[in-house]
Structure formats: structure tokens, C-alpha cells
Write a structure and sequence with these properties.
Layout (H helix, E strand, L loop, with lengths): L15 H12 L7 H9 L3 H13 L3 E8 L7 E8 L5 H9 L4 E7 L5 E7 L5 H12 L3 E5 L3 E5 L34 H10 L9 H8 L4 H14 L2 E8 L8 E7 L6 H9 L4 E6 L10 E7 L2 H15 L4 E12 L11 H7 L4
Antiparallel strand pairs: 1-7, 2-4, 2-5, 3-4, 3-11, 6-9, 8-10, 8-11, 9-10
Helix pairs in contact: 2-3, 7-8
């Protein structure tokens, strides 16, 4: 059993139990008072060993965070993917400017003329288009594409760490219809907002972690867990799970597939693309005169050759031959958005953004 201070390193590879644990943490984290006991029962090891292993995996940078993943739109927030075309000598400076915005959760350099890609999420009192304009004014790209989700066919990274699955498998069955139904977002009460603030924190590595979070946010363990389950039922929270460091876990290739799909085929083809296990996200997004690609798929694999193999399999299965793969060459930022940040009102948020 690994010691709590014995971090996993490149020279200390993951063992079979580590891999099974990471697989469970990605999608099956128990919303119960003693989750490490529940995980231990699934793996056949004591709770103390589960906690020790999680501590090692965190220290070794295999785990980024264990917390709730919320649906920004259902919380009343606005979000979009943004692509910028920057001169090569301004990419680093532009990325640094983009990173300063508190609503930017992901920011990557990719292999394309549109070389900087980031996601931006803002609260209801901010104007999403204006925020993108402010960022563009500061970063000075040659061109900016606003690419909000029109339909979501799949969302959720689940890496196969066991090595037993085929790269081009189609065992995932997406739910019928888009994942983001076009409905009004509910107005959350103060207690619900408080629960969101608690559940989005990195889970403490203590025997009763939800009790610790509940105490910090002035509620009870039972009430916080009840809110978490209710958020799942209502679709406000997609899941409570771990975010892995893909590269440290062995998935070193990350490709954004962009596909030119006729409008009348988008629904059918989107569902087909979402069925591939290696595809973690599948969205329909707007097109532009210089950007004809309407479907986006994120592909995670151990090597770039595997990403190409997945894309080729998708192309054969769907009949869509007009596509490009944009590989991530640098990660500038990857965090979870912090919703309903405490003691921050609209004026303070505006001051934080780019120092305006």
C-alpha cells in the first residue's frame, strides 16, 4: 500500500488498483457521508488505503480536483468556446491576457491558423459578447470566432485507464436529444447558491469530507448531500467526479475534431459521433464564411496516431469526409469555473477582468 507522502512519479507507475480507483473517481464518486469507505468496498481495500492512494495521486499530479461539475447554463450563466487567430509572436502574450479573466476555464494553443482556443463563462449580469470583445481588444487577434454550443450530444471525459478497451470502440449510448434542452434556468435560492459554492470546492481528504465542506459553508452534511442529489436530478449538476491530468495519466494526445456536416444531417451524425468512447465531448456550433465546421468532437488518446485512427473510424461510420484535427500543443489554463463567487458583486468582477 502506498504511503500518503509517497507521490506517484514518472518512475513510479500506476498499479492496477490506482487505475481502477481513477476510473471510479471519474464518474462514480459516491455522494454518501463516508465516500472513501464506499470506494474501498468497490475496490476491495480499506478506506484508509483509498485515502492514501488519492493523496499520492494528487501529489503526483494525476488528479487535478474532485468536485461537482455544474451545467453553467442551468445555473443562469452564459458560456462559449472562442477561437482566436493570433500572429505566432503574439500567442504567448495573448494567452496570458486571456488567462487573467476569472471566467476562462480552459485555454489551449492548437495546430491551426486559429491557434488560441478558450472557453469563457460569465454570470448573468455580464454580457458575454462584450466580454469577448474586451478580451479581443486586449489580445489583438487577427480574427475571433464566437462558438457557443447550439446542441450538445455528449459531454464528459471518461478515460479508460485499464488498457482493455479498443481506441475506436462504439459502446457509449448517448441519451436521446441534446444534453442542453432550451429551457429557462431556474432562480436559485440562497441555500442552493451556498450548496453550489460548497460542492464546487476540491473535496477534502478526510473521512467525512462532505461534513467538512458543510461546516465551512454553514450547513449540515445531510442537507449538503441532499442538495447534491437534487442538483443531479434537476440537471444542474452533471456529475460529482474527479478531473484527471490527462497527460500524467498517459493520454498525451488531445485533438479537437471539426466536421463539415450538412445541416439536415447534424442530429443524426452528432449522435453517431457521440457514440465513440474516445470522444469525450460532441457539440454543434455556429459556422462562419471562413469556418464551415458545424460539429466538434474532442478526442483523447495515448498517441496522436490513435486520434487519427478514431477520426478515420468516425469518418467511415458517418460518411463525413470533410474534417480537420486540431491538436493541443500547449495548455495555458485548465480549471473549473467558480460559480457565485463570494463577496464579489458586478462592479468588483468588472474590475477584476483585465484590470478595466
Amino acid at each position: 500500500m502506498p504511503r500518503a507522502n509517497e507521490a506517484k512519479t514518472e518512475n513510479c507507475p500506476l498499479d492496477e488498483i490506482d487505475r481502477k480507483l481513477l476510473t471510479h473517481l471519474q464518474s462514480e464518486f459516491p455522494l454518501v457521508p463516508e465516500p472513501y469507505v464506499a470506494l474501498g468496498k468497490r475496490l476491495g481495500i480499506p478506506a484508509a488505503e483509498v485515502m492514501s492512494r488519492i493523496g499520492c495521486l494528487r501529489a503526483g499530479r494525476y488528479l487535478r480536483q474532485i468536485s461537482a461539475l455544474f451545467d453553467a447554463r442551468r445555473l443562469g450563466y452564459q458560456s462559449t468556446l472562442v477561437a482566436m487567430k493570433l500572429p505566432p509572436d503574439r500567442v504567448e502574450a495573448g494567452a496570458a491576457i486571456i488567462n487573467r479573466h476569472p471566467g476562462v476555464s480552459h485555454n489551449y494553443q492548437r495546430t491551426h491558423a486559429y491557434n488560441l482556443w478558450f472557453t469563457l463563462t460569465v454570470p448573468p449580469f455580464q454580457n458575454l459578447n462584450e466580454e469577448v470583445e474586451h478580451l479581443a481588444k486586449a489580445a489583438r487577434p487577427e480574427r475571433t470566432l464566437l462558438l457557443p454550443a447550439v446542441k450538445v450530444f455528449k459531454i464528459g471525459v471518461h478515460l479508460d485507464l485499464t488498457g482493455r478497451g479498443e481506441t475506436t470502440q462504439r459502446t457509449y449510448n448517448p441519451p436521446p436529444g441534446p444534453a442542453f434542452p432550451l429551457v429557462d434556468s431556474p432562480r436559485l435560492c440562497a441555500e442552493e447558491i451556498n450548496a453550489v459554492r460548497a460542492l464546487q470546492q476540491d473535496l477534502p481528504l478526510v473521512p467525512r469530507p462532505f461534513h467538512t465542506l458543510a461546516q465551512t459553508y454553514g450547513t449540515t452534511e445531510a442537507r449538503l448531500l441532499a442538495q447534491a442529489r437534487e442538483f443531479l436530478r434537476r440537471g444542474l449538476m452533471r456529475r460529482f467526479a474527479a478531473v484527471l491530468n490527462h497527460r500524467r495519466a498517459g493520454f498525451r494526445a488531445n485533438a479537437l475534431g471539426v466536421w463539415r456536416v450538412p445541416e439536415e444531417q447534424v442530429d443524426e451524425v452528432g449522435a453517431q459521433m457521440a457514440s465513440f468512447v474516445a470522444v469525450s465531448h460532441c457539440y454543434q456550433r455556429p459556422t462562419y464564411p471562413d469556418w464551415p465546421y458545424s460539429l466538434f468532437t474532442m478526442i483523447h488518446a495515448r498517441r496522436s496516431e490513435e486520434c487519427h485512427a478514431v477520426a478515420a473510424a468516425i469518418s467511415r461510420f458517418t460518411g463525413i469526409a470533410d474534417y480537420e484535427l486540431l491538436f493541443s500543443t500547449k495548455e495555458y489554463k485548465k480549471v473549473r469555473v467558480q460559480y457565485f463567487r463570494e463577496n464579489v458583486d458586478a462592479d468588483e468582477l468588472d474590475k477584476e477582468t483585465l484590470g478595466r
